[in-house]
From TrEMBL, chain A:
Positive regulator of sigma-B activity. Non-phosphorylated RsbV binds to RsbW, preventing its association with sigma-B. When phosphorylated, releases RsbW, which is then free to complex with and inactivate sigma-B. Residues 3-111 form the STAS domain. This is Anti-sigma factor antagonist. The keyword Phosphoprotein applies. The lineage of its organism: Bacteria, Bacillati, Bacillota, Bacilli, Bacillales. It holds the Pfam family STAS. Transmembrane segments: none annotated.
TrEMBL record, chain B:
Gene3D superfamilies: Histidine kinase-like ATPase, C-terminal domain. Residues 35-127 form the Histidine kinase/HSP90-like ATPase domain. InterPro entries: HATPase_C_sf (IPR036890), HATPase_dom (IPR003594). The lineage of its organism: Bacteria, Bacillati, Bacillota, Bacilli, Bacillales. It comes from Ureibacillus aquaedulcis. This is Anti-sigma regulatory factor.
From TrEMBL, chain C:
Signal peptide: none annotated. The keyword Hydrolase applies. InterPro entries: Bact_Sigma-Reg, KaiA/RbsU_helical_domain_sf, PPM-type-like_dom_sf, PPM-type_phosphatase-like_dom, PSer_Pase_RsbU_N. Keywords: Hydrolase. PANTHER family: PHOSPHOSERINE PHOSPHATASE RSBU, STAGE II SPORULATION PROTEIN E-RELATED. This is PP2C family protein-serine/threonine phosphatase. The keyword Hydrolase applies. Residues 120-331 form the PPM-type phosphatase domain. It comes from Ureibacillus aquaedulcis. Coiled coil: none annotated. It comes from the Bacteria.
């Protein structure tokens, strides 16, 4: 199992397209990919999760850590196109109240 | 006594050259077949470490004599990253996972081993085996 | 060494002469002596080669070269075997350390299931690996309040277990079973937020049961919703809340809600290891748990927990992927 991230810049928005399963083994890969993003004030990051078919709590941890970094840098984060399973995971954990989760606009077109 | 032999290690072929010269030298000095194999294996491991960790370096093979006994000394010299924690390299639990083939393995093949390393400057490993 | 050579040559030539089983046996036993004398495998081959050369003077050169080749290969083989043994020794050392750590964890987190007279409580908590990232904490004040916290630390194994000790001490400092669940979560959240890494968090469901009024007050921080079965309407309700996981925001607020347990009612609290079926989206695990609980509600709370565990384990083909914890409170 693997996880793969591709980025595309669109003005002030950085679009990330994540694909695969995020578990104890692949979470570190995703974390490293997200850590490489150079965050700056006002940057908005939009992560498309439509092709993430599984995520466990370690994967959730990666998003939590990334979200904290975003807040620190005054940037913004939006997660889009979550499957119903993932949506439920973010709801149960209260994270959907904290992070912006929605329908993808720009990333609907595949990168 | 012959001059020291120096072999630049840049590609895997150089490992074979170093082994060949080392074996000839060991035979010349009078080591038996098993010790010849051990000396050659040690040279192979050292040369392999050069390629793995420093990309390039050299192996120096020389006959030595001290208090009437003869032996062989092999040095591997590179200008790579250098090693932290030299003292740990020779501990049992540090072996292969951290140093490839492992200097610990080389140590078992010879009588003594000496490691000098400076971070960012490179590493010199010198091993000695005496004719018993 | 010379003596070993001579003895080996004798045993070898005896065997070549009459090929008897007893010479083979003697040969194998002779290896013990060789090991005592620190003879290595490549030396054995060298001794063998020399012995053959001495017994026969017409051995072809090519065969002798074959032995030289074997000696060379065995030097390296011996090295690799030694390295492998060193790794095995290291692994054994880690295993022993792990065992000690597990014992310490079990001692630290030891908690007896209380047995008050008016309500039945059952619990099962099975770690995936040796150390548990789930933890159930009970508190029981004489006959007034009983409280239970079901917690799950992100991740598994040692890191989760270490974090768990902190949660336990946080709960211990609260001391009394009568604290408000929302207050408990707010205090724990502050303790945890201060001390853990950005990618760590804890989910927790806290329940306080008033043994005199049968009012059950609950609050949840990012935890798998508990199931509440109401006998009167013969139906299940999800105890849903949107409380945030512990350890993420220092100022997080939590709400609490009450339900009254009547005879035949029960509440099932579980961790996500119970409901998570990774590669089988078609499985509605909460529905299965409801059906199991309903079919077995005549059993004691403890027996119900055990049935749920054994049935779900079967569904998982006995390969659970996470720590597994179920607590049942039954009126």
């Amino acid at each position: 199992m693997n996880v793969n991230v591709q980025f595309r810049e669109d003005g002030d928005t950085l679009l990330g397209y994540i694909e695969g399963e995020i578990d104890t083994y692949t979470a570190p890969i995703l974390r490293d990919e997200l850590e490489m993003i150079r965050l700056s004030e006002g940057l908005s990051v939009e992560l498309d999760l439509s092709n993430v078919n599984y995520m466990d709590s370690t994967g959730l941890g990666v998003f939590v850590a990334f979200y904290k970094k975003i807040v620190k840098e005054n940037a913004s984060l939006k997660l889009v196109n979550l499957s119903s399973r993932l949506t439920r995971l973010f709801e149960i954990t209260g994270l959907s109240e904290l992070m912006e989760i929605g329908e993808g606009g720009a990333t609907n077109a595949r990168i | 006594m012959r001059d020291a032999r120096i072999i630049e290690i840049v590609t895997e072929l150089d490992i074979v050259t170093a082994r060949k010269l080392g074996r000839d030298e060991a035979k010349e000095i009078g080591f038996n077949d098993v010790d010849q194999s051990r000396i050659t294996t040690a040279i192979g491991e050292l040369a392999n470490n050069i390629l793995l960790y420093a990309r390039a370096g050299k192996i120096v093979i020389e006959e030595i004599e001290e208090n009437g006994s003869k032996g062989i000394a092999i040095s591997s010299i590179d200008k790579g990253e250098g090693m932290k924690e030299i003292h740990r390299v020779l501990e049992d639990d540090y072996s292969s996972a951290n140093t490839g083939a492992g200097l610990l393995a080389v140590k078992r093949l010879v009588d003594s081993i000496d490691i000098q390393s400076k971070i960012g400057k490179g590493t010199t490993v010198k091993v000695v085996k005496w004719l018993s | 060494m010379e003596q070993i050579r001579k003895q080996y040559k004798k045993i070898l030539s005896d065997y070549i002469g009459n090929q008897s089983e007893s010479d083979l046996y003697i040969g194998q036993n002779f290896i013990k002596r060789m090991i005592q004398k620190n003879v290595t495998p490549e030396e054995v081959i060298s001794i063998h080669k020399r012995a053959l050369e001495e017994i026969y003077d017409d051995i072809p050169e090519s065969v002798l070269h074959g032995y030289d080749f074997l000696i060379e290969v065995m030097v390296h083989f011996g090295l690799k075997v030694q390295e492998h043994q060193a790794l095995l020794a290291k692994q054994e050392e880690l295993r022993i350390e792990m065992e000690i750590a597990t014992k310490i964890q079990n001692l630290l987190l030891e908690n007896e299931i209380p047995s008050p007279s008016c309500v039945d409580i059952g619990m099962i908590s099975v770690p995936l690996r040796k150390m548990n990232g789930d933890y159930v904490h009970f508190m029981h004040d004489d006959e007034r309040y009983l409280s239970v916290a079901v917690t799950d630390v992100v991740g598994k194994g040692v890191p989760a277990a270490l974090c768990m000790s902190m949660v336990k001490y946080g709960l211990d400092t609260l001391e009394y079973a009568n604290s408000n669940p929302s207050y408990v979560l707010e205090v724990l959240n502050r303790i945890i937020e201060k001390s853990i890494d950005d990618s760590m968090f804890v989910s927790l469901c806290y329940i306080r049961y008033n043994l005199q009024t049968n009012v059950l007050t609950w609050s949840s921080a990012g935890h798998e919703p508990s199931l509440y079965y109401e006998e009167k309407s013969q139906s299940f309700h999800d105890l849903e809340s949107k409380g945030l996981l512990l350890g993420i925001l220092p100022e997080a607020k939590y709400t609490q809600q009450d339900i009254e347990l009547n005879s035949g009612d029960f509440v099932i609290i579980m961790t996500d290891g119970v409901t998570d079926f990774r590669n089988r989206e078609e499985i509605d695990s909460r529905q299965i748990i409801k059906e199991l609980a309903l079919a077995n509600r005549h059993l004691t709370a403890q027996e119900m927990c055990e049935v749920i565990y054994s049935e779900l384990q079967k569904l998982h083909d006995f390969k659970l992927e996470d720590d597994f914890t179920v607590v049942i409170i039954k009126k």
